[in-house]
């Protein structure tokens, strides 16, 4: 039996296989609106056979954008464009999800191909916010520490984002609590020096995430899964650890989260990261083994056999593919062929399906 191509059911949603397109910013939006690029890019990956196509970080508020070109979900007008994408993905037998995000102290930058620098207000930038007035690095602006009202607004922004995501037809919502963005900034002692109910102890640092989870879950029908992406370690002394992730996973499980997507790092500029094939899989494996919460593995998963082994050995329930899926939008179709599994190709492409 090939595990990678077994369906995966959570609540009332069944993914046709265990291959998920990892959320990847396309920086191809104006005022947060999805574009033809999104339809073609994401649609191609659904045509390519992915079980779930997860849309990139979608900002729940304009100040939560990494760049002015980010996808957004902060106004109802964003919904119809997103609906067009979810409808198309469904016609291809795929499921769709969206990552709700707030970039926190890493917001207000030019996108990578425009130089990646901090944007000043004159250049269209804005004041960033975070748990504490600590900049990510010397090249980044110092954020404004959120006060209680600001925190409540963040929770409300995620709630409204979740409502719109449901309206747009996404089967899965993923909360972005990784990569040094706002929710991760609250979780990690490296970026959170608050002395109120949102800083200090582990319970306080994860409070904002749990509030966002509760608000999101409340907007979602019971039959749709909620996922959370974390950086399972900061790879830095004094930072967030794998054991913290296990502890958090138990709380998330109780709060109605269905899967923990285990990425790592990016909350501090210098970290000792042992980058190599599948280098983050150990965290998906640890969380799954110690808590029973389903997990997703991500990071340098690039071939069919490797992906199959991760799922077959029980290290994770799904694999998320980032850059490999950019190199090959048809990775799932190719992987099925390589692993000897019969999958249905789009009828329009059937004459090109390799014979075995
Ligand atoms: C172009 C690009 C954009 C990305 N944008 C996001 C994003 O919006 N949200 C996120 O959680 N990760 C983002 N990532 C990280 C990927 O989802 C993935 O975790 C990372 O690339 C490692 O997986 P890979 O080795 O398969 O590429 C991005 C990566 C790339 C290459």
UniProtKB/TrEMBL annotation:
Residue intervals passing through the bilayer: none
Annotated NADH:flavin oxidoreductase/NADH oxidase N-terminal domain residues: 4-339
Keywords noted in UniProt: Flavoprotein, FMN, NADP, Oxidoreductase
Gene3D superfamilies in the cross-refs: Aldolase class I (3.20.20.70)
A GO MF label: FMN binding
Alphabetized Pfam families for the sequence: Oxidored_FMN (PF00724)
Cell wall biogenesis/degradation listed as a keyword: no
Protein name as it appears in the record: 2,4-dienoyl-CoA reductase
The protein's required cofactors: FMN
Highest taxon listed in the record's lineage: Bacteria
């Amino acid at each position: 039996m090939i595990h990678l191509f077994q369906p995966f059911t959570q609540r009332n949603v069944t993914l046709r296989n265990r291959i998920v397109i990892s959320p990847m910013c396309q920086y191809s939006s104006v005022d947060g609106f999805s574009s033809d690029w999104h339809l073609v890019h994401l649609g191609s990956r659904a045509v390519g056979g992915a079980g779930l196509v997860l849309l990139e970080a979608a900002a729940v508020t304009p100040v939560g954008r990494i760049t002015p070109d980010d996808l957004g979900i902060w106004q109802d007008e964003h919904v119809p464009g997103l609906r067009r994408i979810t409808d198309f993905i469904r016609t291809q037998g795929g499921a769709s999800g969206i990552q709700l995000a707030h970039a926190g102290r890493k917001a207000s930058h030019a996108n990578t191909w425009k130089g990646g620098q901090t944007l000043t207000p004159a250049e269209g930038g804005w004041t960033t916010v975070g748990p504490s007035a600590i900049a990510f690095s010397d090249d980044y602006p110092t954020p404004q520490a959120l006060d209680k009202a600001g925190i409540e607004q963040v929770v409300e922004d995620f709630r409204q984002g979740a409502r719109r995501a449901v309206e747009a037809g996404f089967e899965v919502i993923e909360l972005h609590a990784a990569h040094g963005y706002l929710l991760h900034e609250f979780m990690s002692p490296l970026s959170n020096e608050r002395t109120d109910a949102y800083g200090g102890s582990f319970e306080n640092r994860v409070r904002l995430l749990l509030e966002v989870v509760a608000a999101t879950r409340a907007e979602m029908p019971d039959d749709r899964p909620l996922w959370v992406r974390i950086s399972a370690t900061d790879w830095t002394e004094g930072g967030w650890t794998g054991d913290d992730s296990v502890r958090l996973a138990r709380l998330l499980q109780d709060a109605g989260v269905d899967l923990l997507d285990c990425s790592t790092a990016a909350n501090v500029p210098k970290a000792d990261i042992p980058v190599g094939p599948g280098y983050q899989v150990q965290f998906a494996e640890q969380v799954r083994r110690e808590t029973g919460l389903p997990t997703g593995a991500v990071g340098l998963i690039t071939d069919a056999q490797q992906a199959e082994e991760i799922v077959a050995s029980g290290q994770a329930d799904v694999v998320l593919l980032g850059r490999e899926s950019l190199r090959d939008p048809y990775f799932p179709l190719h992987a099925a062929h390589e692993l000897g599994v019969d999958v249905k190709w789009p009828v329009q492409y059937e004459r090109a399906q390799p014979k075995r």
